[in-house]
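Box 3.1 — From sequence to structure: Streptomycin biosynthesis protein StrF domain-containing protein
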Amino acid sequence: MISIIICSRGQSFRQSTIESVAGSIGVPYEVIAIDNSKNEYGICEAYNIGATRAQYGILCFMHEDIAFRTTGWGNIVERILLDNSIGVLGITGGKWLPNAPGTWWSCGNKYLSSNVLDQSSNGEYSRYTYSNPEDKNLVDVAAVDGLWICARKEVWARFPFDEKVFPGFHFYDVDFCATISQEYRICVSLEISVTHFSLGSYNDSWLTYADVFYRKHLNRLPIGQVQLSNREACVQEYEACKTFLLQLIDKNMAVGIGYLYLSRCIKMKPFSRDTIWLARYYARYIWQNRYKRKHKG
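Predicted structure (token representation):
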């Protein structure tokens, strides 16, 4: 028996997803839709409210823009979560969270596990991603995507979504996994597939919460199910920090956010041409911001 929990923008948005659940889940279930049509809640708060109301032992937190491609997926979830070593189950995720700002796909394609059809609502865009390098039905990962997350209620009760640190709609999923991974396995099931009618949103808020996530888990990163060579880890982390810093500049984010990531680049590759150029570029960004503030006043 499964409790379906949805943070909903309204009845019209969630109706097709609820119908998809009804026609595919294959086990007794309930739907707990937290009405967020007035944008009263962040997704963490909405999910925690829903989980508190749930009457069943398995919680399934899902977006309202998905449709199931697998019949009887509820039986698969119940079978997998009988294993008490598993804390979180998803359908797409990555095996490595680098010591850098980024999310579950930051590990690169060769470490991704996924069985998702991404499709725009108007049908103009469609991409099916089936990635299963280990050729297994169940894969251990570092974090899963929040479009669909299952957990036993007892696990959520010990590690609820962090609504204080993540009051918005980004990085709640990666944070949930990073926290629970201290005591449980995080897994992706390749037996379950969905269509996801959203391409995501990578705006200023995404950058803000990427920074918040990194600073919260700084002492635990990297987190992962693979052992990267020192060289591969350094290359990945350097590129992630550099890319993130350039995104901060492009979005004209607060100057203070970037110091940490520039210092990490300098520490990893102090004499690199890229690092020298990056330091000069960021220094110019700082100067321009100070100049604008001075003359604005």
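Summary of the box: The mean pLDDT is 93.
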